[in-house]
Amino acid sequence: MNAPQILTANIGFRGPHARYFGELPVLELPPLDHVRLGTFTRWRKEVPAEARFVPRVPDAVALAGFVGDEAAAGWERTRAIASRLRAELVLLRTPSTFRPTAENRAAMKAFFADRAGDPFQVAWWADGLWESQPEARDEVADAAGLIPVVDPLALDDDEPLPAGAQFYWRLLGRLGLSGRYSDHDLYKLLELAQGRDSGVIVFTSARMRPDALRFHGMVAAGGAELAVAGDDPFDDFEDDEGEDDDEAFDDDSFDDDSFDEDGDDDSLDDSMDDDSMDDDDES
Q1: 176: domain CATH number?
Q2: Could you read off the pLDDT of 57-94 as tens digits, one per residue?
Q3: Structure-derived torsion over alpha carbons of residues 112, 122, 108, 149, reported in degrees to the nearest 10
Q4: Gap between the Cα atoms of 128 and 182, Å rounded
Q5: Which of 55, 8, 26 is closest to 181 using CA atoms?
Q6: Where are the alpha helices (H) located in the chain, listed in sequence order?
Q7: What is the pLDDT of residues 242-274, one digit of tens each?
Q8: What is the reported pLDDT for 254?
Q9: Is 144 inside any structural domain?
Q10: Which residues, other chains included, contact 205 with Cβ-Cβ below 8 Å and sequence gap of 6+?
């Protein structure tokens, strides 16, 4: 069995994209519905060729229920952004108001059936009742060609991960004083990824930055290969609920103001010109 390609991302970065991509290979973008297309073109030019952006699908697509002119226009913008960023993957979030009704399921399937030829994949982050009805979510995702978004470390023990060769996992953080992941947690991610081809694991707050960097280092050091062999390098160590004396966990690591602890949508302010919110297009 070959080790999967696992890419790491972290949310909450403030500063030049080139600096971020010097540490991690994937950047999930916040909603940027009003940013000029020319800004995305500039961002692409400013980063290494191997850097990967994951843009968000405009909210209008889901809010329109995947039908009508607004949904179509939102998807055209998605295509334009993905093209300018050379994105291979986009993130779709459906709100809790978009429930797993028969009508909504049919609308999603029909919408994506008409767009099956798009040159990028779609990861689907389903809020609300979909989370308590994973079978419904996974059935729609399979029919529509979407990658379900989950936090594998937050699932119940008897709840299986969505099937598929690709995965997109967004980690919400551990409970407790530190909120940080232990080595066993991170190694479990490597184990859970076995048998798949590739995927992205997103650490969803700036406070998770040390975990993201540590996990990225584990992958780079061959952690995925160890998981294939079933060799847990942390078997001989106590699991202290995420507490660790490693320098990666020093409080000083959070003093870097290039990360926004809240992961707010303003985390990219330093990368956008004052006129980047202009509605006019720019090639």
Answers
A1: 3.20.20.410
A2: 999 999 999 999 999 999 999 999 999 999 999 999 99
A3: 160
A4: 29
A5: 8
A6: 17-21, 37-45, 59-63, 68-85, 102-113, 134-144, 183-192, 209-220, 223-229
A7: 444 333 333 333 334 454 544 444 445 555 554
A8: 32
A9: yes
A10: 11, 12, 173, 261, 262, 263
CB 188 within 8 A of CB 153: yes
The 8-class DSSP code of residue 161 comes to P
Domain limits at 239? Answer: 5-271
Asked, for residue 277, whether it belongs to a domain, the answer is no
H or E element: which one contains 136? helix 134-144
Q: What is the pLDDT of residues 3-49, one digit of tens each?
A: 899 999 999 888 899 999 999 999 999 999 999 999 999 999 999 99
Answer for the pair 106, 75: CB distance below 8 angstroms, yes or no. no
**Residue pointed to by tokens 């707050």:** 205
Q: CA angle 236-238-241, nearest 5°?
A: 140
| Per-residue model confidence as pLDDT tens digits over 172-202 | 988 755 678 999 999 999 999 999 999 999 9
Residue identified by tokens 């320098």 is 247
- Token pair for 75: 């998807």
Give the rounded distance of the alpha carbon of 229 from its chain centre. Answer: 27
The answer to whether residue 282 is domain-embedded is no
Beta-carbon contacts of 106 under 8 Å, excluding residues fewer than 6 positions away, are none
Q: 278 in a domain, yes or no?
A: no
What SS3 state is found at 221? Answer: coil
Sequence-ordered list of residues with C-beta below 8 angstroms from that of 213, at least 6 positions apart, any chain: 10, 23, 24, 248
Number of domains making up the chain: 1
